[in-house]
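Task card 7
Instruction: Convert sequence to C-alpha cells.
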Amino acid sequence: MFRKQLAVLTLFLFTFTLFPTISYSVELTLETPSAILIDATSGKVLYEKNSHARRAPASVTKLMTLLIAIEAIKEGRGSYDDIVVASENAWRLGGSQIYLEPGEEMTLKELLIAIAVGSANDACVAVAEHLYGTHESFVEVMNNKAKELGLKDTNFVNSYGLPADGHYTSAYDMAQIGREALKHEEILQLTSIKHYRLRENTGKPFQLDNTNKLLWWYPGADGFKTGWIGEESGFCLASTAERNGLRLISVVLGAPQRKGNFRDSMILFNHGFASYIFKEFMKEGQEIAEVKVGKGAQDYVKAVTNARVGLILPKGREEGISTRIEMDPVITAPIKKGQVIGKISILKENEPIKKFDIVAKEGVERGSFWRQYKKLIKDILDFD
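Output:
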C-alpha cells in the first residue's frame, strides 16, 4: 500500500507524425487587398496577405460588439430575457437596422440576434446602452478588450461600423477577435442563424436574413459577420468553418467586387482544409488518472485535460512525434477545482513543442485531524 502511494504515474506515449512547423509557401489568387487564414486552436497563421494593414471593417465591427455583450452577460450585467427599451439615440441610426422606435421594448436576446443576423445598427446602440449605460462607455470597453488581446492595429469609434475617423482594424487583429469569440459558444449559436422573424406577435413581423452566404455555400461554415459601407471598406467578411476537428478562421477586408468577400474566403478555407489536418490526442475534459491526495478530505482527485490536446499538421508530410504526461504522485490538500496539477507535452525529437495543462476535476478540502490520524494508523498497519 505504502509503495503504491509513492509510485510515479506511468507516462502515456502516442506516436504520430509531424512535419517541421513551417507553412507552405503558396500564392493564392485573391482580389481582396488584405486577408488572413489561421488555425483557431493554436492561432498559427496559415496564409496572410497584408494582414496588418489598417482598414475600415464596416459591420465586421459587430463581432467585437457581440463578444463584449456576451461577456457582459456572463459577468452579470444583464440576461438574455432582459427587456431593453430603445432610446432616441438608437432610433436615429441609419444603415442596416430593424427600425426601432423610441420606447419600443425588445428582449436582449432578440437584439443580439438582430445584430448577428440582420447587422442592425440601432440594435447595437440599444444593447450598448442597456449593458453599459451609454454607447460611449460600451465602445471604451471594446477598445479595452482590444488592448487586452494585444491588438496593435485596431481602434473602435462606434459599435456598429459606420464610417468614422479613427475607426479601423486589420485582418490579423480581427482574426484574434474571432479566436476570442470562439470561447463563447453563444456567439456561434447567434451567427449561425440563417433566418429569424422579429416582432412575430405584434402583427408586424420583421424578417431577418443572414448576410453571411457561406452558411449556405460552404460546408462547415457557422460564423461570423459580413461588412460593407461602400468603397471605403469594400466587401468584408470575418468567418469560421470546421471540418473533421480542424477549425479555421478567415478574414478578408476590402474585396472590390460584390460577393468577392465570399469567393476569397472560400479560397482561403479550401487551401487550409486541403493542406492541413488537426490531430487530436485527447479530448477536452478527458480523465487522465486518479492522483493520490495527501492530508485531504478524500484520498484521490481526478486529473483531467482543461482543453483539447492536439496539433495542426500539414497533410502528407509527417515524422514521428510523441506525447508525455507529467504529474506528481501525491498532491497535498487543499486543492481547488481547476487547479493545475500536471502537464501534457507534445514532443518532437524529445523537445517540447506544445504544452497543455492537466487540472483537478473537483476541489478537495483539507481533511480533519481525526481523519488524518486514522489514515496514518491504517498506513502503518498496511505497511509491508
